[in-house]
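User: Quick one: structure for sequence A, then sequence B.

Assistant: Sequence A:
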Amino acid sequence: MNGKDILRAFAGLVSLPAWCLQRVARRSPSLWVFGAWYGNLYNDNSRAMFEYVCDNHPEINAVWITSSEAVLGEINAAGRCALLKGSREGRRTCRRAGIAFVSTAADDVCEKELNGCKVVMLWHGCPIKIVGNDARRFMVKNTLWKRIKTAVRRIVVPWEFIRYDMVCSLSEFFNPIFCSAFGIREEVNAITGLPRNDALFEGCDRLIKSLEERWSGCTKIVYLPTFRDTATGEGLAFNPFAGFGFDAERLGEVLEKNNMVLIYKGHFYDLQHGASKVNAVSERFVCISDRDYDSLYGFLGGTDILITDYSSVFFDYIITGKKVILAPFDYDDYIRVSRPFYFDYSLMEATRAKDWNAICDILSSDGARPAPQGCISRFNAYTDAGSRERVYREVIMRFINK
């Protein structure tokens, strides 16, 4: 063990008595805490569920837990309740909460205060590549020393090994994947749909309104390539406009001729590492970031065509019945260097494009199509805006009115 491991073990031993006492402490079934991305962001399924509970179920005391002062101010200014993760009140609230909703890990809220709390994993997309326990087993050789260290950590820092009491899934197809990734039993899965997907059916975002005001009646195409990484988890910056037959002049002509707008949102890792740079195409090629819309899925609900590659947004978007183009430009390299897939990529059925020339051809000929009904039903048990209420009812049935 190195010095860092020793310090962690010592800190764990100091916190262990308080952790054990939580098991016998009384928790409030009507106090629910929510968090996302280790407390740093206010987004994704946790946000969708939090706002829904706040607006529709006043009998529940819903509290967002965050590490960000900016997020704290945003939520409280909107008339909802947020507390800082590291504050005394934030820790005390998590210690009293009966239900915790997370999208990345138990550390989205105060994980050290969750012994005895029912933890609901909403996750941030049904996975294509291996995640969770499966990814760790793949990346790190399971030696005897590794097993010994893990066993010791389970005793000294048990909050790092919290098992989820409920995991939200899109369909039976994903249940075995979540069982393997999170080390849960089959019955822990709840086929509810994902809370954020409800926004695909509800109104539209300010970004969509601004595009329609500028180009009346335009076809709005959104391009969302996914994050690239190696089999060891190291990120790989990806620029989809560097090669792959990209011709800015031709793409601009296609967009102009067909009254289309292409909205590109690169993955934040690519943007942080200077990738995804593209020379001017036309005013109809719009690059956006998280600052440009109110809600990602509210914005997506106002678009007409999705272009993506290996992103789980595919499973979400197809429930709308709108057109999809799969553009796995670097498929051979991707499957060679990245984490393995859980299933054959061919199960994701949609119009396919091997490069930008093919995309231009498809757009010019109106060749994009929605995913087949069989594909939609394989990946989604529900195709409506009721996921948040289903999650709510499932939690009530499993943990409150049991």
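Sequence B:
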Amino acid sequence: MAKTKKDSNFSSDEKSTSTTKIKVIGIGGGGCSIVSEISTNLKKVDFVAANTDKRALRELSKKTKVFNFGEKITGGFGTGMNFDLGKSSAQDDKERIKSLFKGQDMCILVASLGGGTGSGAVPVFAKIAKDMGLITYGIFTLPFEFEGSRKMDIANEALKEVKSHLNAITVLPNENIFKVIDKKTPLKEALSIINKNFQESLEGLIETIYNPGLINIDFADLKTILGERGKLAYLNTTLFDANKSIDDIIKKATLNPFYSYTINGASSVLFNITGGENLGLKDVSLISEGILNLTGKNSKVIFGISKDTKYKDKVRIMILAVGCESENVLPEVKKEVVSKNVVEESKSEPKRKKESKKVEVEVRRNALETKKAVEEIEREIINKDDQWETPAFLRRNK
């Protein structure tokens, strides 16, 4: 049953589900397109499309609220592939961005990384939300391989910078779409398939939080799962025929082809099983056991069970796993190894001459030094490449 103020385990820090406010914000051209498409079918949360390009915002779904920022910097046009321009556009409108997050409990930031606006502005939006005390969750797509290494470099720089401001990060490489479609599929159709998968996953999470269940999951549970920072997250909602084998159900729920990683080793897992009146305890037990066998040994696990008449002869599973194990998905700032001359003197032989010994010492950059280093790299890339795409508002002035 849902928690109420009369329950002994209810604390003042736990918001009731009915008052929980979640906002989904698409940032940049790609993020705005995703949010515009999924907002037509999802309720109970607010959707906002944030972009520097006014014209692009006018072409979005009427059900999506639009937010134009950085007009003083870009003149209302796009930023091309200029990461710094996207960042400065957001920084110039910090106070207006704060108004987007006012009164919210959680924000989900969506962006297609690799361009200027989304990649540059996402870290600014995320930091503002974090500083205001919101739970922050980022869902990002990465460029197709045919878009070139330059875009991937920008995407990775954005991930490095935004990571510390988010509780959890989901990364979806666009390239993985070719696991489920033919390469001759039109680009718009392919992107729509990615969006539909994201929509279904997000819908499962939202319904789990807002709808009461036999064993209930609420916003306090979500906060528990998202209690850390910068963790890789797997979000997936899948619907099955009730007569499917348990092994097939577990496999499909935990192996989404759009991901380059699974729930293996996750440190925190929230999952909900929804079915019709015929949902059996034995099936619930076997599905739960199969999911738990893939998580970390000491992982925090919260699960719920719901019954819904619209899922007659169907079973739906929603999984949010945080702290997943995977190499090379979230780029790390490399540790620097420097050489130092250390003078060592033997205490047992005081008269012995001092010896100079060369040893390797690992030095980690602090946050400020890391930020400066990243900014220097960005400037070098932009200055060295004469063919860098010029932002739209500068092209207009040529």
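The chain has three domains: 17-209, 233-322, 336-392. The first strand starts at residue 22 and ends at 27.

User: Thanks, that's what I needed.
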